[in-house]
Every structure is written in structure tokens, then in C-alpha cells.
Amino acid sequence: MIPAGKKRVLFVCIGNSCRSQMAEGFARTYGGDVMIPASAGLAPAAIVAPDTLRAMDEKNIDLRDHFPKGLRHLGRADFDLVVNMTGFFLPQEFKWRVVDWEVADPVSMEYTRHCEIRDAIEQLVMKLILELRGAPRTQFRGQGSGRLEL
């Protein structure tokens, strides 16, 4: 059972190796009071990218117990919001509210760029957390963007 007031949020990217793992890590660390986060990938990788683990370590967030998951791994879980970072449209069977975040995939980029993307994801997650906490409305950029209403 979901505690009252908490929203189930799913972060989706391609391999669930970088972007969605970082977003889930930030959401668990900073927003556990308002959300229950999860992450998945359209085509899950074999491991969480080593640069992702290293970059998140710099923020004191340990992702070593995380692993890439596909959408099927989620079973019949319901979500209040799906944050799409894939750059693609999600499968039609998604019944939930989707917000698109335009975030480059750092999987094959140099480490400094990986960290820049990590920092951008951290800012987006913090905006989402503030929105869920009822702070002044924040605009999200990207396709299907706008004020988040849950």
C-alpha cells in the first residue's frame, strides 16, 4: 500500500543504465517524503554504467545495488507519473501521465559530460520534488511539457 500523499513515479530511458538510474537515485534520496520512485529502460543494458556509479558517488548516492530493468520487470505496477527521457514516444500501452525530459544519453560520453548530465538530471528531479511538495508551479521543458498536474 502506498502511503497517503506519495506519488509513484517511473523514470524511463533507453538502457536503464545512466539517466533513469540517476533520476531514481536523486528521487529516493531527496524526495522520499513525496514519491516512490522506480526506473526502467526500453532495452535494458547488462549493468549500470560505471561512470554513472562514479558520478553518483560524488553526490554521496550509492547505486551499487541497482540493476537495469525493462518495463516488463515492473509487472502490473501503476504509476501516477512517467518521466520519459528516451527521446522517443513510449509504447502505447502506457496509461499513465507522461512528461518528457530532454536529457542527452551520457552512456558513451566522456566523464565530465556524464557529470554535467547528472547535474541537469538532479535539477529536474528537484523541480519535480518541489512540484509534488506543493511549491510554486514549475515549467518543464520538452515534448508534452507544461505544468505538472497529478
Look at the structure and name the CATH superfamily: Response regulator
Give the mean pLDDT. 87
- Sketch the major β-sheet: 4 strands, parallel
The fraction of residues in strands falls at 5-15%
**CATH topology label:** Rossmann fold
Under the CATH scheme, the architecture is: 3-Layer(aba) Sandwich
Low-confidence stretches: 136-150
How many domains?
A: 1
Task: Report the total helices.
Answer: 3
Structural class: alpha/beta
Short description:
By secondary structure, the chain is of the alpha/beta class. It is 29% helix and 14% strand.
Describe the structure.
By secondary structure, the chain is of the alpha/beta class. It has one domain (7-132): Response regulator (Rossmann fold, 3-Layer(aba) Sandwich), CATH 3.40.50.2300. The chain is 29% helix and 14% strand. The chain has helices at residues 19-31, 50-57, 111-132; strands at residues 7-13, 35-41, 81-84, 98-100. Strands 2-1-3-4 form a 4-stranded parallel β-sheet, with helices on one face. α1 (19-31) links the parallel β1 (7-13) and β2 (35-41). The longest helix has 22 residues, at 111-132. The protein is globular. The model is unreliable at 136-150 (pLDDT under 50).
